[in-house]
Design a protein that fits this description.
about 40% helix, binds adenosine monophosphate, about 280 residues, Pantoate--beta-alanine Ligase, Chain: A,domain 2, Rossmann fold, about 20% strand, six-stranded parallel beta sheet
Length: about 280
């Protein structure tokens, strides 16, 4: 694996490979890698692309300074895991390399409704920060294919919108959420949970499964309220549990039985904020 820290160097190297007819698959991450991240590298490798992973904890997308300060970092282990997975390139930039002019005058992306609901509502500015970093990364890394995890369902929709808005010639692939055998969605933030609270965290998966098994055409508000009560009684501080249209994230209170739905959840367990989702 080749490690690049400078934007100009990796761009020059990748452009040369593209000229030689190679396809580039890109997997942006914030590190503290787990098998969920590695599954994205594997998807890119399966497509026969040069696989590029970036590790950058993007300050612009943290609306909570404490969350940024406590974000786990395991860089030596990450490099090992990437080598083992056969990743070709790691891009490991500094903040000044990513944002040489700072982020004070950053552009605003017109994300519309997507930015006003669910994660957008509870993490103001978060998706602007996500767009800023992904746009910059895609300027540096001329990716043919971008691999994202369904774990961050709304983020996938935001990045699809970014690619449309900016006419970026990159195909987006959404890969399934990898879970522990218990069902708990793998997440870098799980490292901040004790063994005991990892067991408790499983309640999110159980609640989403409950919604999946009990959604019927008609009114869904009582079902959603039961789900919120279940998580609250299990010791969570719930931000939201919602059932939404899987295509546009419109909140669904009355289901016609035809539209495709997704159940989404965000809740704090102590200081750790966890998110998960399930297609119904
Ligand atoms: P992050 O490092 O959390 O920014 O995530 C980097 C990428 O990995 C994003 O596209 C995530 O959606 C994806 N990802 C995170 N957790 C999982 C998981 N459990 N399964 C599959 N993909 C994941």
């Amino acid at each position: 694996m080749i490690l690049f820290k400078k934007a100009a160097d990796i761009t020059a190297w990748l452009l040369k490979s593209k000229t030689a007819g190679k396809k580039i698959g890109f997997i942006p991450t914030m590190g503290a890698l787990h098998p969920g991240h590695i599954s994205l590298i594997k998807a890119s490798k399966k497509a026969g692309s040069i696989s590029v992973c970036s590790i950058f904890v993007n300050p612009a997308q943290f609306n909570d300074a404490k969350d940024f300060d406590n974000y786990p970092s395991t860089i030596e282990k990450d490099i090992d895991a990437l080598e083992k997975a056969g990743c070709d390139i790691l891009f490991l930039p500094s903040v000044s390399e990513m944002y040489p002019a700072g982020t004070g005058n950053a552009k605003t992306y017109n994300l519309g409704y997507l930015e006003t609901v669910l994660e957008g509502k509870y993490r103001p500015g978060h998706f602007q920060g996500v767009c800023l970093v992904v746009h910059r990364l895609l300027n540096i890394i001329p990716a043919d294919d971008l691999y994202l995890g369904q774990k961050d369902y709304q983020q996938c929709m935001v990045i699809k919108k970014l690619v449309e808005l900016e006419n970026i010639n990159t195909t987006i692939h959404i890969c399934p959420t990898l879970r522990e055998t218990s069902g708990l969605a793998m997440s870098s933030r799980n490292m901040r949970l004790t063994e005991e609270s990892q067991k408790q965290a499983l309640k999110i998966f159980e609640t989403l499964s409950y919604l999946k098994n009990n959604s019927k055409p008609g009114n869904l508000t009582a079902l959603k309220q039961t789900a919120i009560d279940n998580l609250t009684n299990a010791g969570f501080k719930v931000n939201y549990i919602e059932i939404a249209d899987a295509g546009n994230l419109d909140i669904i209170n009355h289901w016609d039985g035809n539209s495709k739905l997704v159940a989404v959840a965000a809740a704090f367990l102590g200081e750790v904020r966890l998110i998960d989702n399930m297609l119904l």
